[in-house]
């Protein structure tokens, strides 16, 4: 089969790989949709192998990219419980493999494995930008019949990550949340928070993305390039109190600082954007206002399933996140466009 490989320095290669067959405890999916995630750009832009090495998981062998897999189970290895995975099952993949036995792995948090994550699919293990993908049955999460494969691909990372962060914040329908950054994760958070009944203030430096945020449920939008006092602007929209919660999906140091400063007393700020840093004045920004600062890294298999069920039950139109739908043959063009970070989310459909 043909697979898409990040060759380094913004180069895509199409390489041939053997069709996978499942070993004990494993399954093979025929991929129907494979999403493009913002974190792909780290590996797309990096010199060959450098981004994977930074995770301590580098390998010299080429790896098929794509860590938002969704498809149909077409082969099952020995020892797989049919309640876990079965041929014909519509499924997403939780894109990490751990030891499988520690307290984190057995509760669906393979990325927090006590022994360190063994593989990240699409980075150090073959991912979903190909016709087939092999993975442990323990990483399979069933896709509800009501949802499209492209929606499942979004839930498999970007939308699921937004869900995980909103759950960490304990967001309620009578609250206001300010969401910094309206890329794929931020837009997902806007869409989900709105479906939860919360009032959403969306922030981004792209007017195009702010327009999409409004279409997906934002009640107010702020462009920091056009607003000199972000904290003041958020307070003016919340009766001078500040937001109940904030979520930073931008990875901007300044946005993270503003996210903490713009919550009200007893408020919560969640950082979900990868990398970077932030500098805070601890007493006024946090201590003297009883502010909680939270870090949130993706989600568990249980959380992934709960996110999918919520989206199906509330009829959340996740497919509206996608501005571009591609075939695998278009991968080079697709990532060149995505690299500008001005468009919405893309997905490869097979």
TrEMBL record:
Q: Per the entry, which co-factors are needed?
A: Zn(2+)
Q: Does the keyword Transmembrane apply?
A: no
Q: Where is the Enoyl reductase (ER) domain?
A: 8-348
Q: Which InterPro entries match?
A: ADH-like_C, ADH-like_N, ADH_Zn_CS, ER, GroES-like_sf, NAD(P)-bd_dom_sf, Zn_alcohol_dh
Cell division in keyword set: no
Q: Spell out the molecular function terms from Gene Ontology.
A: oxidoreductase activity, acting on the CH-OH group of donors, NAD or NADP as acceptor; zinc ion binding
State the UniProt keywords alphabetically: Metal-binding, Oxidoreductase, Zinc
> What residues form the membrane-spanning segments?
none
What's this protein's family per the entry?
A: Belongs to the zinc-containing alcohol dehydrogenase family.
Protein name in UniProt: 2-desacetyl-2-hydroxyethyl bacteriochlorophyllide A dehydrogenase
- Species assigned in the record: Jezberella montanilacus
């Amino acid at each position: 089969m043909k697979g898409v490989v990040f060759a380094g320095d913004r180069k895509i290669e199409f390489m041939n790989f053997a069709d996978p067959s499942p070993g004990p405890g494993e399954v093979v999916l025929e991929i129907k949709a494979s999403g493009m995630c913002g974190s792909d750009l780290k590996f797309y832009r990096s010199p060959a192998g450098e981004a994977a090495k930074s995770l301590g998981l580098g390998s010299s062998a080429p790896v098929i990219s794509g860590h938002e897999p969704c498809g149909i189970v077409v082969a099952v290895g020995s020892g797989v419980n049919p309640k876990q995975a079965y041929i014909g099952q519509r499924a997403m993949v939780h894109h990490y493999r751990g030891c499988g036995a520690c307290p984190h792995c057995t509760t669906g948090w393979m990325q927090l494995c006590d022994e360190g994550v063994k593989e990240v699919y699409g980075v150090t293990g073959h991912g979903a930008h190909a016709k087939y993908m092999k993975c442990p049955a323990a990483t399979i999460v069933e896709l509800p019949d009501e949802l499209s494969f492209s929606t499942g691909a979004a839930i498999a990372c970007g939308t699921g990550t937004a869900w995980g962060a909103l759950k960490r914040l304990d967001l309620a329908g009578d609250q206001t949340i300010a969401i910094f950054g309206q890329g794929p994760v931020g837009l997902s958070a806007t869409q989900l928070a709105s479906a939860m009944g919360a009032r959403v203030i969306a922030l981004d430096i792209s007017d195009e993305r702010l327009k999409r945020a409004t279409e997906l449920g934002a009640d107010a939008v702020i462009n920091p390039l056009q607003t000199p006092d972000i904290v003041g602007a958020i307070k003016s929209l919340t009766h001078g109190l500040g937001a109940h919660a904030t979520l930073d999906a931008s990875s901007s140091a300044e946005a993270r600082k503003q996210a903490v400063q713009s919550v009200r007393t007893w408020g919560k700020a969640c950082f979900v954007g990868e990398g970077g840093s932030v500098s805070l004045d601890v007493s006024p920004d946090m201590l003297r206002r009883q502010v909680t600062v939270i870090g949130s890294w993706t989600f568990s298999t249980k959380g992934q399933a709960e996110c999918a069920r919520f989206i199906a039950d509330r009829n959340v139109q996740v497919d509206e996140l996608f501005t571009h739908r591609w075939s695998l043959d278009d991968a080079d063009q697709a990532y060149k466009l995505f690299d500008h970070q001005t468009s919405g989310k893309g997905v490869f459909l097979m």
